[in-house]
Specification:
Layout (H helix, E strand, L loop, with lengths): L5 E5 L1 H19 L5 E7 L3 H8 L6 E9 L12 E4 L9 E9 L3 H14 L3 E9 L12 E5 L5 E2 L15 E4 L1
Parallel strand pairs: 2-3, 2-5, 5-6, 6-7
Antiparallel strand pairs: 1-9, 3-4, 8-9
Helix pairs in contact: 1-2
The structure holds inosinic acid and magnesium ion (MG).
């Protein structure tokens, strides 16, 4: 992609404004009293996770898991590698899984199955920054999402291409 130009799809102000709105929806859904464990799916969700967490009003615990389904390509490999799934006991807790983008749904299908069967959480919900509905292969929908995206490969704000561009404060794509 080195000969192509990186274009801005969503600027920083639009991103953070919309993420704050998603945080408000999450606050309205859970209320401000009960504890919520938010689980960041590394590495891609890191920026969305931090931006979202700043605006949550309930007592929050932050946890991190590390999964990989893309390898180095732009197309889903069809396999999920669990790099780190160690979590504290979540029995009886409200859990919100936070992911960068739901594409085929393979990664989140795997993680939600794991959380529901092994962790015995009281409730597991899902927040994603981007919903790429057109690519979906698993019957899964996010409970909260910031933006729809069509079938283009996007980078920035945590999302990478070959491990680059995660640091960009905006969402870009190559044209
Ligand atoms: P899924 O398992 O097919 O839903 O793929 C989800 C994972 O693929 C995401 O967590 C991302 O890491 C990666 N991914 C999917 N679409 C994109 C994209 O447009 N840009 C960068 N990474 C993507
Ligand atoms: Mg990811």
């Amino acid at each position: 992609m080195s000969d192509k130009e990186l274009k801005v799809l969503i600027d920083e102000k639009t991103l953070v404004t919309r993420i704050k709105e998603v945080a408000c929806d999450i606050n309205n859904y859970y209320g401000s009293k009960d504890e919520l464990t938010i689980v960041c799916v590394l590495k891609g969700a890191v920026m969305f996770f931090c931006e979202l967490a700043k605006h949550l009003k309930m007592p929050v615990r932050m946890e991190f898991v590390s999964l990989s389904s893309y390898g180095d390509a732009q197309k889903s490999s069809g396999k999920v590698s669990a790099l780190n799934l160690s979590l504290p006991p979540l029995e009886g807790k409200n859990v919100l899984v936070v992911e960068d983008i739901m594409d085929t749904g393979l990664t989140l299908n795997f993680l939600l199955d794991f959380m529901r069967s092994k962790c015995k959480a009281k409730d597991v919900k899902l927040a994603v920054m981007f919903d790429k509905k057109c690519a979906r292969k698993y019957p899964l929908e996010p409970d909260f999402y910031a933006f729809d995206v069509d079938d283009k490969f996007i980078v920035g704000f945590g999302l990478d291409y070959l491990e680059l561009h995660r640091n960009l404060p905006y969402i870009g794509y190559y044209e």
